[in-house]
Fold this sequence. Notes:
By secondary structure, the protein is an all-beta fold. Helix content is 0%, strand content 46%. The chain has strands at residues 4-6, 13-22, 29-36, 52-56, 63-67.
Amino acid sequence: MAYNxxxxxxxxxxxxxxxxxxxxxxxxxxTIFYFAQxxxxxxxxxxxxxxxxxxxxERTGLPFLKKK
Length: 68
């Protein structure tokens, strides 16, 4: 089951995903984390990455990850 977060402002449920992208400047790979309203096969995560916490944008209600 994918890790989910329910927005306190909108009440919508968001699911945590990750993707590895290649940086144009260095050519190195970096993992990015994002929330989506649906579960996307192959990119959904079952738990939070170590050292991160979920924070909600006060204005929009969208969740994002922040290092502890």
